[in-house]
Design a protein that fits this description.
The complex is a heterodimer. Chain A is mainly alpha-helical. Chain A is built from 20 helices and no strands. Among the domains of chain A are: 53 residues, no CATH class; 63 residues, no CATH class; 29 residues, no CATH class; 65 residues. In chain A, α2 packs across α4, α3 crosses α4 and α6 packs across α11. At the A-B interface, α2, α3, α4, α5 and α6 of A face α1, α2, α3, α4 and α5 of B.
């Protein structure tokens, strides 16, 4: 330990090998310890991670199983709130609802805050971001690179395979947005019942004006003139309110009437059927032949077990035996 | 593939606790991190554990990412690599229900599409390319497989002490090459 600490070169090598990943368990524990105590060592490790970090570009990307994300999401502190938080956002702010789809949008929303780091990014890391435009112009590094690619690379295939999963990755993302859309649907449905609920509350309002007129005839004969003009005044006031809702009220009433009629019809049918069954049971002789069970079943096209057994059996069985 | 700028934005949103951005970040980066981690651990169950730990760490420390120091993906890969190497150095839990160890003959890195070659990577590859071929192989094998020196010595069939000296000399040369 103390040897490593004393020798700066040793510390450098430790940091480099820590990043490279070649330390044995004991050395790695030492390095881990230094990372929490020695800022100089931390800086060295960060420097080596910066130097070697881009090597990851040559690692083939492999799509992990979906259940890994499920595990991660389950451990997020706000995991249960995720789905609930989206619900209110979708109807209230159309912009934020669109945001999850296009990621530039949230970025734009954060632009004000990000702009500071982003601005500081531009000078240093832009070379890293711009390269797509530059690979050709850099003639100096390319010759050694070509030499390099022979031993290092060898296989172009993995690179192609690398891009395939990227396409696949878009698919789940789209799929994840679908539920959000689905969540809005119930919200719309929820409004439908809301429209329906005020309707039942309105029938009383027409009932109220209906209740008002009766007193008016009572009042007019009892008293003389003065009360009469008073009554017409309220009547013009009350109608306008119900008039606006008349359509809705009428519609609901019609619907109610239809349902009542249907229910009455069903009840009649049931009563009739019950009466018939009771007649079969208690007074079969009074039931007209047309309404006898066997006749009814034949009329309905149901072959009774008794009838066919009787018909064909007697003649043939007599001959056979 | 998302650009570093997009991932930087996502990280900024994640730093504010935006779960949707985190999900998006995962979708955009998980294949790269999983590729890195699986190459080191060679077991899917261990790789899944490291992925979980790495992304939780990213969720908590997204605000610490400094775009002036590295690209966002390199930062995330560094987190995942540290965890993966720690796990590979520790006592490994026995493989459960026949979890197959992934045997990968082709231990070298894959190819980089030319348009993805960043200046930093070009410079690094140039510097690595100046090493002797044996040392190039040693260095890349060490990085991608995160083998310990003992494992490397077996793979390359050379004494550990020699390998250690060679490794360190290579790292010093690369550092000098990069800073020159």
């Amino acid at each position: 330990m103390s040897d490593i600490m004393s020798d700066a070169g040793e510390s450098d090598a430790l940091a480099a090998e820590f990043v490279l990943g070649t330390l044995d368990p004991d050395e790695r524990m030492q390095a881990r310890g230094l990372l929490t105590t020695d800022q100089e060592f931390v800086a060295k490790v960060l420097a080596w991670e910066r130097r070697l970090g881009e090597l990851h570009l040559m690692v083939e990307a492999i799509e992990p199983e979906g259940k890994i994300w499920e595990r991660i999401r389950a451990k997020l502190p706000e995991a249960p709130a995720l789905t609930e938080m989206r619900l209110p956002q979708a109807p209230q702010l159309p912009e934020t609802a669109a945001a999850p789809g296009d990621q530039p949008a949230p970025a734009a929303a954060d632009a004000s805050d990000v702009s500071a780091p982003a601005a500081s990014v531009e000078p240093a890391p832009t070379p890293a971001m711009v390269p797509p435009a530059e690979p050709v112009p850099g003639p100096d590094p390319t010759p050694p690179l070509v030499d390099q690619e022979a031993p290092v690379v060898g296989q172009e295939a993995p690179a192609v395979g690398q891009e395939a999963p990227v396409v696949d990755r878009e698919a789940p993302v789209v799929g994840q947005e679908a539920p959000v859309v689905g969540q809005e649907a119930p919200a719309v449905d929820r409004e439908a019942p809301v429209v329906a609920t005020p309707a039942p509350s309105e029938p009383p309002s027409p009932a109220a004006p209906a209740a008002v007129p009766p007193p008016s005839p009572d009042v007019s004969p009892a008293s003389t003139l003065p009360p009469a003009p008073v009554i017409p005044a309220p009547t013009p006031i009350t109608p306008p309110l119900p008039l606006e809702r008349d359509d809705a009220v009428l519609r609901v009433r019609r619907r109610l009437r239809r349902w009542r009629a249907f229910a009455a019809l069903l009840i009649l049918l049931i009563v009739a059927a019950a009466g018939l069954v009771a007649a079969w049971r208690f007074a079969p002789e009074r039931v007209p032949p047309r309404l006898q069970p066997a006749e009814l079943m034949r009329a309905a096209g149901i072959a009774t077990g008794v009838a066919p057994a009787r018909r064909p059996a007697p003649p043939e069985s007599q001959f056979d035996e | 593939m998302s650009t570093p700028v997009e991932i930087t934005w996502l990280l900024a949103a994640v730093a504010k606790g935006d779960p949707a951005a985190f999900e998006r970040l995962y979708g955009v980066t998980c294949a790269k991190l999983y590729g890195v981690v699986l190459r080191i651990l060679r077991r899917q169950d261990l790789a899944a554990d490291v992925m979980e730990e790495a992304y939780l760490q990213i969720w908590h420390s997204a605000g610490e990412f400094n775009p002036a120091n590295s690209t966002p993906l390199a930062w995330m890969v560094a987190i995942a690599r540290r965890l993966a190497i720690d796990l590979s150095r520790g006592p490994q839990p026995a493989a459960t229900d026949g979890e197959p160890e992934i045997v990968d003959e082709n231990e070298g890195p894959g190819a980089v599409p030319r348009h993805q070659l960043t200046d930093n990577l070009k410079r690094l590859l140039t510097c690595i390319g100046r090493l002797e071929p044996d040392r190039q192989r040693m260095l890349l094998l060490a990085y991608y497989g995160a083998f310990s020196r003992e494992q490397l010595a077996v793979k390359l069939d050379m004494p550990v002490n020699l390998l250690k000296a060679s490794l360190r000399r290579s790292l010093v040369e690369i550092e000098q090459c990069l800073t020159s």
